[in-house]
Amino acid sequence: xxxxxxxxxxxxxxxxxxxxxxxxxxxxxxxxxxxxxxxxxxxxxxxxxxxxxxxxxxxxxxxxxxxxxxxxxxxxxxxxxxxxxxxxxxxxxxxxxxxxxxxxxxxxxxxxxxxxxxxxxxxxxxxxxxxxxxxxxxxxxxxxxxxxxxxxxxxxxxxxxxxxxxxxxxxxxxxxxxxxxxxxxxxxxxxxxxxxxxxxxxxxxxxxxxxxxxxxxxxxxxxxxxxxxxxxxxxxxxxxxxxxxxxxxxxxxxxxxxxxxxxxxxxxxxxxxxxxxxxxxxxxxxxxxxxxxxxxxxxxxxxxxxxxxxxxxxxxxxxxxxxxxxxxxxxxxxxxxxxxxxxxxxxxxxxxxxxxxxxxxxxxxxxxxxxxxxxxxxxxxxxxxxxxxxxxxxxxxxxxxxxxxxxxxxxxxxxxxxxxxxxxxxxxxxxxxxxxxxxxxxxxxxxxxxxxxxxxxxxxxxxxxxxxxxxxxxxxxxxxxxxxxxxxxxxxxxxxxxxxxxxxxxxxxxxxxxxxxxxxxxxxxxxxxxxxxxxxxxxxxxxxxxxxxxxxxxxxxxxxxxxxxxxxxxxxxxxxxxxxxxxxxxxxxxxxxxxxxxxxxxxxxxx
Length: 607
Known about the structure:
By secondary structure, the chain is mostly helical. It has a domain at 3-164: Up-down Bundle (Butyryl-CoA Dehydrogenase, subunit A, domain 3), CATH 1.20.140. The protein contains 24 helices and six strands. Strands 1-3-2 form a three-stranded mixed sheet, covered by helices on one side. A three-stranded mixed sheet has the order 4-6-5, sandwiched between helices. Helix 21 (526-545) runs antiparallel to helix 22. The longest helix is centred in the last third of the chain and has 37 residues, at 441-477.
């Protein structure tokens, strides 16, 4: 029997790939801009030591720096997208590395600007900032001045800027191993078809109705990480050490304080998320016990936690239908939003399908001078692909609105609010699908089951990840060893806390700590949990209140990075400084669990 193999990039239909021509017509145009940026680097010296001289010089220097950043972002965006098409493509990898190197050199050349701005006498810099012509620069400059206690001398800042590329060593080594070198072998599914196991289809195997297939996929997938566990544990440990080094150099009290400072997020928000979730684990435990009972098994293992409880539902949705489904679900956001989205998803925004060497997972990317781009590994037979598409579409539309309504200096929204836009879309999709199948209780229960698992993965699971990051960084900050045994031991403690006695924790599951790419971007994952909490609240407002709430939400998308994220959400009607949004999301989760448990017996009687 023929083996179903992952296709090569060249075998993918060009209409299924993203269109990068708005960035560059080709590599030659990219090279021309690269050379131009290199030649302009020396112009930074024209402003060194002069920022205090006059408002005209001050603004000219800032505008020059912004123009350089804008150009290099376009350069980098093209390079990283091309590299992610095939991580084994050495030519594209070289473009990516060169763009990163150029960014490091630019950061080195511009490193004098922040300490020099901070050294300008208070009365002078206040006069500059509050001049009528500087209104659009004001918030960005105020953020720079906030960093004054954490900014060092010009000489040290230059050295730190030079270290930027080297600091990515652990992350880049993990990425290459995880995306280009790891091989997971082949599996024979319940129909006798032999399929190559990959990042892209692992989640599909975990929802396979055959428990034996799920177990084999789980064990085989983690066998690859077990074979490289010492290497990956080392990359993770040294990524944490890198975080610790920079936080200490910049005089922060901890890695977490350093990470949260840029968004002006109080550490209490992070701690309150963890404590609130851990105080509300009962709905999760109730669901997991129900899952074991519904599946009719003696022991619940992790590979049993994603397969649909409602059996006999065959899902298949081609990409083109998924686009229309997304637009229908997002109809409460209006014709303009949906029209722009349909045009982009059906046009050149999305790189749709998996190919050999392609970066795993999904993301939304782009820059100020490009359309938003979405990397997918879409599968017709997995409803998670539909949800991933609408999730990334939320990011992309957020980017589109931000770039349209904000100048370059303040267009870039933070991840804290980005995850609101993406999970907001997912919430509307679930409501749409439940209504769409109102005459089919089995399909409704299947969708509710999927929504429960999504919230579980986004709120409970990401909060567990956030606590893991807190624990492992504390180990490093306390000068303790972050070895493989420590990593697996701490992760096991968290699995036991967040799952209680509801599942059997296999040894392989402790290797999960070694495969999460977001752990190389410190204190990132908690934003998924806060994001879904805010998103549920905002989605409920839009569905309940209609046009007024819709317009307020769209205004929120237009803010970009013009305010701190907590303030942006306050303007939209959600206060993340309190536990209320998280409690509301957990209550929503509990209500869905109750609804499924109540509905399930009738499905068994009718089925």
